[in-house]
Amino acid sequence: MKPLSWSEAFGKSAGRIQASTIRELLKLTQRPGILSFAGGLPAPELFPKEEAAEAAARILREKGEVALQYSPTEGYAPLRAFVAEWIGVRPEEVLITTGSQQALDLVGKVFLDEGSPVLLEAPSYMGAIQAFRLQGPRFLTVPAGEEGPDLDALEEVLKRERPRFLYLIPSFQNPTGGLTPLPARKRLLQMVMERGLVVVEDDAYRELYFGEARLPSLFELAREAGYPGVIYLGSFSKVLSPGLRVAFAVAHPEALQKLVQAKQGADLHTPMLNQMLVHELLKEGFSERLERVRRVYREKAQAMLHALDREVPKEVRYTRPKGGMFVWMELPKGLSAEGLFRRALEENVAFVPGGPFFANGGGENTLRLSYATLDREGIAEGVRRLGRALKGLLALV
């Protein structure tokens, strides 16, 4: 019998599959006593546990034959209608996906070939990098910060290259927490429209703003201008529950049809029970729920910034988010976030080193902190521990 070689059996794309750095780090942070700023997990106190239990029982009792059956790939019609009204589109422009991560995977499959150029911010969401990398593209990047991507650098790239699409998170970017101002959004859209390019706008944090109002999305600005080239991704994970894995994509019918066909080959449809449960939970009191979500995250962000201002050495820089779930930190040149991570674990506090958020490498002195899951006392104590680790690292320089 010939010995089986799995490495010879795998296809080329299997070699591009990499473990999620965050998921691997989370394994290290599960030990007792660790205060974790690592995972971008929503606040568990916001989960509608009792309401979900009652709604699920009601759905199964009254509509079990629908909830437990196959369904159309495009999604549960009442939920598509809800999304359409929320986003301001027609229901037939909406595809329900199994989390935003599936939407990213579908976009990669539909638009990318091996060697295709795709343009991202640096840093950018590592889940998107992971999803797109499977297709073997050529990553183009532009620097990003507290006010979004560097538009001058973007313009220079677009003079030389024609990417299959631009992937952007204009509102409370993961990992930087950056918010692209309205004038920059308009300038960016103008660049895109002049070249007829596709934009994939990931707006998972759209409702987590701390100010008085939400900025219009690139998608909304594009629709106002009559431009169909923005594919819009949204999710219920941050405002309801990530465990239900219900998200959506909105796109021009020609693009949406291809995404639907790709989804048919992936999972046929998002679980019907989950879709119906999300719809039930959101039919009433959605505005009040969003107000509570914003208040909770605003208070947690304020607690983290107050603690950082008090505990972190002055030579360490960090962002001051206006929404979302993250603070982005930059260590002085020559210091390693990986080295800080090891010291932080000794202090029983964890975070995510920034390197994996850079598609083409770099960012070794950066890190991401999430304030979402800890309460204010936990945030204060975690930052105290992080401050001790930072001071210990800086003392070696």
Automatic annotation (TrEMBL):
Q: What cofactor(s) does the depicted protein rely on?
A: pyridoxal 5'-phosphate
Pinpoint the Aminotransferase class I/classII large domain residues: 49-386
| Tree of life domain | Bacteria
**Molecular function (Gene Ontology), one example:** pyridoxal phosphate binding
Q: Which GO terms describe its biological process?
A: alpha-amino acid metabolic process
Q: Does the keyword Repeat apply?
A: no
Task: Give UniProt keywords alphabetically.
Answer: Aminotransferase, Pyridoxal phosphate, Transferase
What is its quaternary makeup?
Homodimer.
Family, similarity comment:
Belongs to the class-I pyridoxal-phosphate-dependent aminotransferase family.
Q: Which PANTHER family match?
A: AMINOTRANSFERASE, KYNURENINE_ALPHA-AMINOADIPATE AMINOTRANSFERASE, MITOCHONDRIAL
Q: What is this protein called?
A: Alpha-aminoadipate aminotransferase
Q: Which organism is it from?
A: Thermus thermophilus (strain ATCC 27634 / DSM 579 / HB8)
Taxonomic lineage of the native organism: Bacteria, Thermotogati, Deinococcota, Deinococci, Thermales
